[in-house]
Amino acid sequence: MSETASDRSTIDALREDFRARIAAASTDAAVKTLADEFLSRKSGSVTGLMKTLGTLPPDARREFGALVNALKQEIETSVDERRQALAAARPPADAVDVTLPPRTRAVGHVHPLMLVRQQVEDIFTHMGYEILEGPEVEDDFHNFEALNMPPDHPARDMQDTLYLGSPIVGGTWGAHRGSVPDAQVRAATLLRTHTSAMQIRYMKTFPPPVRIIVPGRVYRRDNLDLTHTPMFQQFEGLVVGEGVTMANLKGTFKAMLTALFGDVKIRLRPSFFPYTEPSAEVDMSCHKCAGAGCAICKQTGWLEILGSGMVHPAVFEAVGYDPDAVTGFAFGIGIERLAMLKYGVEDIRLFYENDVRFLEQFS
Ligand SMILES: [Zn+2]
Fold this sequence. Notes:
By secondary structure, the protein is of the alpha+beta class. The chain has 2 domains: 2-89, no CATH class; 112-362, BirA Bifunctional Protein, domain 2. The chain contains 12 helices and 10 strands. It has a 7-stranded mixed β-sheet with strand order 1-5-6-10-9-8-7, with helices on both faces. Strands 2-4-3 form a 3-stranded antiparallel β-sheet. A hairpin with a 2-residue loop joins strand 7 and strand 8. Helix 7 (197-205) packs across helix 9. It is rod-shaped, with a radius of gyration of 43 Å. The chain starts with a helix and ends with a helix. Bound molecules: zinc ion (ZN). Residues 286, 288-289, 293-294, 296-297, 301 line the site of zinc ion. The site of zinc ion (ZN) has 8 residues, from loops.
């Protein structure tokens, strides 16, 4: 009987050991290792006890065999239950792991040309200008004729024009944001070569005084190279009123360019445009070298910025303004030109290739 008592305590020890460890088994692999340790055919500790049964006398064999069987069944049941519990606690295959860090969303940037456009619009808005847009498809009257360029005028050759294959007839094509309706309906035949066409639309619709900025795309028959694109963007500016002078023009550019580039000097050079008289190219002292001479300003210390002038009396007559009562100045600035100078971009094509490696630098 002492033999049976010792074997009984062996069974109790195994049971306790198993119960403690099955509760701690937290993976399928750990459960399998534990089950093998007790039940495997070759080396399981419970299996080992089974193998000793044959050496016992019949009575003891029956009693001890029942105990070993009970332990074996308990272990098998516990292993099954533990496996089911682990399976139930496991997340489904399509489960979302809420502890994972979130994916960062790719955020777009404002295009460098739009950055410059917004800055310039801000500057002029603070000076009391109204921002307008106009139609990109224009008629000959607004793009040329009313701007003192009648048919066969040689100045038309200054801008290589893109004409439509078939003209658009009707008045709805000018319905852009802030555009001015045109009472006189003409067939649109061309892509505007400059934003100056909008000067005419505005003055034909509203009496003086005028203080407007017109940003927008313009088109010329240019080949793509370092400094030219067939489509580019301009700001048109127009100020009309009593006693407006070239001093106002100069002061306006000084304020605008200082706001954009810092403390710069400006100078005016005589030039020619059919719709202004006198006309002037406006240069700015180089913002990189402060006028000392560098690669950007080609060692001159000056940078060409824009074309401008006092509105030609013929333009006022074309829109019904009295050239003896009002004067005004107008100007056109290339947005790409400003952006290239401001950001040190040497190839205008970069603005239109949409290479994110370029665009990301303006975030
Ligand atoms: Zn320079």
